[in-house]
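Quick one:
INPUT:
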């Protein structure tokens, strides 16, 4: 997988309004990569496990930049029973889903709010829209935006989003 493409995909995906925590993350994250920032946040344990199972940790620790729409542990808990265990045993399918959460490049919230679509590292495009003051990425809502890392930006989302090719199997 092309690192530059992965970086651009991650960056485009993570765009939401900036809040106090995001501003703190910007100062703290400047010397930490996306994976480190996510792990230190404490609410991305499942994402970290999935990244490891899909062999994406080193990619997201790479130069980037990336924009990552990062589902929280609570977002993963919303998946149907048994889904996560099944995905962890199927690294190719898991990789397809996780790379759908990544846009190559650094896409801060202000830029993302101007987009209607963002091409992901997976190759498919996420739908982006602003509804009632909230940024939506496919069927997920950005709950925290602009958490900066040395190699990109993280936008926290409340659901795991699936590439179009996998939506029927949801």
């Amino acid at each position: 997988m092309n690192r530059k493409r992965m970086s651009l995909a991650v960056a485009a995906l993570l765009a939401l309004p900036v809040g106090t925590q995001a501003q703190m993350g910007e100062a703290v994250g400047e010397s930490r990569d996306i994976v480190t920032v996510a792990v230190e946040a404490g609410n991305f344990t499942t994402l970290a496990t999935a990244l490891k199972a899909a062999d994406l940790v080193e990619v997201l620790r790479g130069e980037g930049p990336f924009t990552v729409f990062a589902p929280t542990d609570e977002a993963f808990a919303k998946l149907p029973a048994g889904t996560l265990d099944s995905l962890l045993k199927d690294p190719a399918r898991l990789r397809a889903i996780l790379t759908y959460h990544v846009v190559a490049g650094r896409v801060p919230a202000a830029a993302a709010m101007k987009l209607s679509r963002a091409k992901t590292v997976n190759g498919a495009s996420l739908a982006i829209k602003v509804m009632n003051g909230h940024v939506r990425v496919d069927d997920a809502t950005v709950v925290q935006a602009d958490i900066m890392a040395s190699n990109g930006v993280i936008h926290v989302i409340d659901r795991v989003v699936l590439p179009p090719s996998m939506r029927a199997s949801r």
